[in-house]
Amino acid sequence: MLIAFAEPNLPSGGTLIVTVGQDRTLGPAALEIDRITGGMVGRAIAASSRFIGKKEELLEILAPAGLTATRLLVVGQGKPDSLTETHFEGLGGAIVAFLNKAGETEAYLHLDLPAGPAPSLSPSQAAAAVGVGAQLRSYRFDRYRTTEKPEQKPSLTRLTIQLSDFAAGASLFAQSEPMLAGVRLARDLISEPANQLTPVTFAEHCTALTTLGLDVTVLDQARMAELGMGALLGVAQGSAQPPRLVTLSWQGDPNPPADRDSRPIVLVGKGVTFDSGGISIKPAGGMEEMKWDMAGAAVVAGVMRTLAGRKARVNVVGVLGLVENMPSGTAQRPGDVVVSASGKTIEVINTDAEGRLVLADALWYAQETFKPRLLIDLATLTGAVIIALGHEYAGLFATDDGLADQLEAAGQKVGEAVWRLPMGDRYDKELNSDIADVKNVGAGRAGGSILGAQFLKRFVGEMPWAHLDIAGVAWAKKDTATVPKGGTGFGVRLLDRFLADTAESQSSS
Ligand code: BES
Ligand code: MN
Ligand code: ZN
Asked: How many structural domains is the chain composed of?
């Protein structure tokens, strides 16, 4: 689907969309269409017992009199004080979802911005946000569908957003295109089944990103063995699929200002391409979901793609730990002790707590190789975070309050919310092992996500560090305004915004 921006104009066909504020308030564009149609907008609203102009509420008028458009769609805007970027993204998403089902191919939206006390967004910002939401909702993973009836396919080919300052809208929207491509990449990778996306093919997808100017290196099993990555390799040893460790580097700020720390920010992602649990095998019901246990790595790849796509003036490295966790005659056993690359020994009590084992070595490699000024990891680490926060917030753990606040703020702005959870020595103690430096699970199920974070912290040095447990938000079981069901890409927008707001050099032009 194409997003276009143009001057307000009556279309010769397709759907014309106007907006209506809460409590049925019509702005200039809606009033004009109401006049042209001999009062159809007002009569339709009056005739509908329910429509009051609530956010994303829709009212469809077919074959409107006085218009060459085949359909008039009236969309609710909600209350003026709720008109944020996220709000307009939701509007765009709701519109394309409706028109794709309706079989429409072309649509033209004329936004009325309610004249609030202090409108926080300009018309062009609002228009660009509608375009972003429309694109996010249009995403579809259909590469394995070979037979589909036309009426099952999304029909909308173009949404034209009309505003007088259409050039500004178009240029703002264009600035979001790299982020949209990053989200699409993450969603694609997350949605791929585990027979198609193995550590090796995942690494190949990363290598393909060199065309955008990213530096990509891939470590194979032999190289990881030389580096002593016994924790990551212990997880991989049960699988016929060999592991990979990928780094993607974006050096967009080669000469940072003298007052800025020139060390990179490093993002680390858990990339378990399938998590059967290993010998501590998972129950059969729902196990297919564990194809998306690589979402952390996919999101890091999506962020790196975004940064390269928009030529961000910042130095960031992504490190992906890619393995498959399988039970077999060569698999590691509960009770095994592995030696991590850091030298710390780990007693593997539960082979299903594998993400932290992979991350232990990936975090070590990230710190050893890149000496980051800031370290952030993303992982579908624990089922417990779903019990704690459901599917609305990702779990955030951080050693630095400032970093936690910045991540929270970035998440708020882009509609990817995170909620901070506590850490502390009393939790840490539960990971002491009788025979090794640390064990990979605590005694019971209490505080499972916190213990996962405490385990990771044992492998993290002095710099500020944050861990995002995205197990509850990486996959959507139902559609929401801007996220169709499936892999969400949660974290791409959050980290892109976090980096833009806190770490990027201003352009000198
Ligand atoms: N990949 C899972 C966590 C997960 C669960 C992600 C549900 C997405 C949805 C992780 O490897 C795991 O199995 N964690 C265990 C940890 C336990 C053994 C301490 C869990 O959550 O049960
Ligand atoms: Mn597991
Ligand atoms: Zn896992």
From this structure: 2
- Give the CATH number of the domain where residue 252 resides: 3.40.630.10
Q: Which of 184, 270, 356, 493 is catalytic?
A: 356
Pocket of ligand 1 contains residue 192 by CB under 6 Å? no
Beta carbon of 380 within 6 Å of any ligand 1 atom: yes
pTM score: 0.97
Residue 120 has pLDDT above 90, yes or no: no
Residue nearest to atom 13 of ligand 1 (CA): 352
Ligand nearest to the CA of 277: 2
Identify whether 169 is part of a domain: no
Ligand 1: distance of its center to the CA of 375 in Å?
Answer: 22
127 and 5 in contact (C-beta within 8 Å)?
yes
Does 155 share its domain with 196? no
By CB atoms closer than 10 A (0-12, 13-18, 19+), residue 470 is: buried
Please, what's the largest Cα pairwise distance for the chain? 83
Q: CA 490, 306, 322, 191: dihedral to nearest 10 degrees?
A: 50
**186 and 70 in a common domain:** no
Does any domain span residue 174? no
Which residue(s) pair with 61 in the sheet?
A: 72
Q: Does 276 sit in the ligand 1 pocket, CB within 6 Å?
A: no
Residue 133, pLDDT score: 98
Q: Please list all protein residues whose beta carbon sits less than 5 angstroms from ligand 2, which is an ion.
A: 275, 352, 354
Q: Domain containing 234: what range?
A: 179-507
Residue 508 has pLDDT above 60, yes or no: no
Q: Which residues pair with 439 in a beta bridge?
A: 347
> How many residues appear in the chain?
509
- The average pLDDT across 468-495 equals 98
256 and 314, same domain (yes or no): yes
> Which of the pair, 191 or 56, is modelled with greater confidence?
191
What pLDDT shows up at residue 116?
Answer: 62
Summary mean pLDDT of the chain:
96
Residue 509 has pLDDT above 90, yes or no: no
Residue 171 domain-assigned?
Answer: no
Do 378 and 459 fall into the same domain?
Answer: yes
Looking at the fold, whether 44 and 93 belong to one and the same domain comes out as yes
